[in-house]
Amino acid sequence: xxxxxxxxxxxxxxxxxWSRQIVTDPTSKPVxxxxxxxxxxxxxxxxxxxxxxxxxxxLGAAFSDPALTTLYPxxxxxxxxxxxxxxxxxxxxxxxxxxxxxxxxxxxxSTSYLDxxxxxxxxxxxxxxxxxxxxxxxxMKDEGLIRHVGISGYPPAVLADIAVEIRETLGRAVDVVQxxxxxxxxxxSLGKSLGRLYGEGGVGIVLNASPLCMGLLRKGGVPIGELxxxxxxxxxxxxxxxxxxxxxxxxxxxNMAALSLRFAxxxxxxxxxxxxxxxxxxxxxxxxxxxxxxxxxxxxxQEVGGDEQEDLRSYTTLDQExxxxxxxxxxxxxxxxxxxxxxxxxxxxxxxxxEQKKSREQS
Length: 363
What we know:
Number of domains: 1
GO cellular component, one term: cytosol
Distance between the termini: 41 Å
GO biological process, one term: dehydro-D-arabinono-1,4-lactone biosynthetic process
Radius of gyration: 20 Å
Order of helices and strands: EHEHHEEEHEHEHEHEHHEHEEHHH
CATH topology: TIM Barrel
InterPro entries: AKR (IPR020471), NAD(P)_OxRdtase_dom_sf (IPR036812), NADP_OxRdtase_dom (IPR023210)
Strand order of the largest sheet: 1-2-3-6-7-8-9-10
GO molecular function, one term: D-arabinose 1-dehydrogenase [NAD(P)+] activity
Number of strands: 12
CATH superfamily: NADP-dependent oxidoreductase domain
Strand content: 5-15%
CATH class: Alpha Beta
Keywords: Oxidoreductase
CATH architecture: Alpha-Beta Barrel
């Protein structure tokens, strides 16, 4: 089942931009004003997580504010959050914890239902824990508290395995899968797993998050927030990404972030066999959102005979001519990245696995 339609469009605004991983003081940001601006541009789908502390709290307050609720009916919004991940190295996928997390999210958003709830970074827990958490979300869907159930994580192939196992074991498929850093100018390997996700997994829609690879694919490198440098990219990849950014800038004043976003949105729209190609954008400020929306509009186009208003939701079709015109720049960046094309880091990494092993031995 696919929660996206003409009322939501092809774009989601991600909430990580209001997390301590990304910025030093998220509470100082004008969140309500920023969300209202995003809504005025046609963005209707929003994604966050309790793990993106304090993003869910800040977004919940914004979406509960009368200044927003009087303008935008709840039925016009697509609110997505996650559950199960507590901190960088702590997870709780137990059914009581999953239920408590969802109920807390409902309270934070002052809503009677959430459109999508994902298990957060599902590859970090055992399959039995993952199945138990998803079973609980299915129960809450049957109770009307959740409209769609999803799983999220880093490696698309692992997510496909889990989606297939859920369908085979629980007798129903997850509606949405969210993966990140696997459909961008450095890594397009999500495409290899789409067939299995949609086929054996029965997934309704796949979402592509982190089109800039968590800030790596831009001038200036990865963002450093209150929690320090959390990005797992090794030095070699960082150096090549920086070199590519300098090269793009030298091409008539090009912008690496904008080029990377054009590639991610365009390539996903091109290869997504269901024709959705929904991308989760970053943007914790009005300026960032404006820049990202304008970039999307240069990649997608309005359907002939469709809504001619300047609303992002009406941009649904890949602009093939513009996508092809960017080809030399895309190739130049990928040539510089060279051996790092389609590189993926381990998730979970060796340090996490060792810590979990020690914890089990001590218990």
